[in-house]
Design a protein that fits this description.
Elements: H1 2-24, H2 27-40, H3 44-51
């Protein structure tokens, strides 16, 4: 019984490590690219003024 509990605990730890790794691996580069794209994008009020025809 103890062996089964230890095996389940080990499998749970491995699962948590895999999920943690996939959530945060490479995130800094993606966030930097996202911030750069947001800085270059026009603001909603600027886009509305540009699209209005006189």
């Amino acid at each position: 019984m103890l062996l089964i509990l230890l095996e389940a605990l080990g499998a749970g730890c491995i699962l948590v490590l895999i999920v943690w790794w996939t959530m945060f691996s490479g995130r800094a580069e993606a966030e930097a690219a996202h911030r750069a794209a947001n800085l270059q994008a026009p603001k909603p009020d600027q886009a509305a003024e540009r699209d209005i025809q006189p």
